[in-house]
Amino acid sequence: MFKGIFIALITPFKAGKVDYETLANLIERQIAAGVSGFCLLGTTAEPPALTDKEKEEILSFCTSKINGRARIIIGVGSNSTEHTLANIKLAAKFNPDAYLVVTPYYNKPNLNGMIAHFSAVADEAKKPLVLYHIPSRTGQKLSVDFLSKLLENIPQIKAIKEADYDIARVVKASTLFSDKVEFLGGNDDLWPALMGLNFPGLISAAGNILAPAFVKIQKLFLEGKIKESQAIFKQAYPLIEALFFEVNPTCVKYALSCLGLCEENVRLPLGSIQEETKQKIKQILANTPKELII
Fold this sequence. Notes:
single chain; 294 residues; TIM Barrel; 12 helices
C-alpha cells in the first residue's frame, strides 16, 4: 500500500492566507514527477498553525485536485486523544487511504496510555494507521519492546513512518517487525540506507523540491542499479542536507521561493531563516542538477 515516494506537502501562504493557486501548481508538479502519494497536514504543512476551517478547506482542495491520481495519507495526530479523534472526524470526509498518527508529544504516555490512545484512534478511524515515530519532535523514543507490545495490541497499525536517527534501533525494529507492518522512511538523508533495509516507501519533506530525484533514486535501486541510484543521491545530497539547516519547513519554503514556486512565508511561531542560511541554500540550489528538481 505504501510503496514509493509520498510528499509531505507544504502549506503555501500569501498575505497571511493559504495560497491555493500555488498549492495546485505544486501538486501538479509532484504528480508529473511520478510520486506515489501525498501526506496532507503532516508536520511540513504546519498544522499547529492552521485553524480547523483551514484544515478542512485544504483537505477539500487537495483531495479534489489529486482526484485519485495518487494515494493520500492525512496527518491527524496530536498530544490529546480527544483532539486526535476530532481530527479524524474532520479528515474522514475526504476518504484517505490511511491516517498518519504521531506518538503523543510532551505528554510522553506510558505503555498503557499509548495502547489506549491508539486503540481509541483505531476504533474511530476504521482505516489503516501509519504510526509516526519522530523522537526529535516528541521527546519520546519507543523501545523495540514497547513497539512490539503496541503492534500486538493495535493490529490496525499497518505502517510506521520511522524518523529515528538511532540506526541500530531502526535496523532491529524493521528486522523484527517487517512481517507485521511496512516501514516508511521519515529521514530523507537516510533514504539509501533505508532502501537497503527493504523500506518500501518514503514520506519526504525534501521531496517538495527533490521529488524527481527521490523517484529516480528508488526506481534505479529497485532495478538493481545501485551505483546509478547512489550517484543521483550524491548529486541531491547537498540540497537534502541544506533543506534541514533550520527547522522544517522553513528552508523548504525558502528554496521553493528561489525557484519562483512559492513565497517563503511561514506562520508564527516559525520565523524566517537566517540570511546566512539563505545564501547557503541559494548556492547549493544553483549547483543542483535541474532535472532533479520539480
